[in-house]
Amino acid sequence: MQTAPVGEQLKEWRSRRRLSQMDLALDIEISTRHLSFIETGRAKPSVHMLHRLAERLDIPHRSRNGLLLAAGYAAWMVGDVLRRPFAAVSAAMGGQPN
User: Which among 46, 33, 38, 49 has a CA at the least distance from the CA of 9?
Assistant: First the structure.
C-alpha cells in the first residue's frame, strides 16, 4: 500500500480542520510560503515542524506516524504505546490490560 506524500496529507488535514494556509502558518509561526512549499513537496519539513503541524491540526497519533514515515522519518509511537490509553478502560471493564 502506497501512502500519500507528506504535503498532500498535511493539506488534507488542514482542509478537514477548515484552516487556510495563512491561518495555519500564523498559528505555528511560519510563513505562508514555507507552508505552501511543504504542502507542494518543494520543501521537506523537519521532525520538529511535523510535530508542530500535527499538534495544531490535532492529528491522531496513528496518522502522525504516517506523516513521519511519508517524510522519511521513523515513527515515534508504535504498537503498545498506542494502546496504553485504553488499558485503564479495558481493565475497568474487566478485560486484560494491553
Answer: 38
Provide the pLDDT for residue 76.
81
Distance CA 7, CA 43 (A): 9
Phi, psi at 84, each rounded to 5°: -55, -40
pLDDT tens profile 30-49: 999 999 999 999 999 999 99
Question: C-alpha cell of 15?
Answer: 482542509
Q: 56-92: per-residue pLDDT in tens?
A: 999 999 899 999 999 999 988 655 544 455 555 556 6
User: The cell 475497568 sits on which residue?
Assistant: 92
How far is residue 45 from each of residues 12, 60, 63, measured CA to CA in Å?
A: 16, 18, 16
User: Rounded to whole angstroms, how far apart are CA atoms 35 and 21?
Assistant: 7
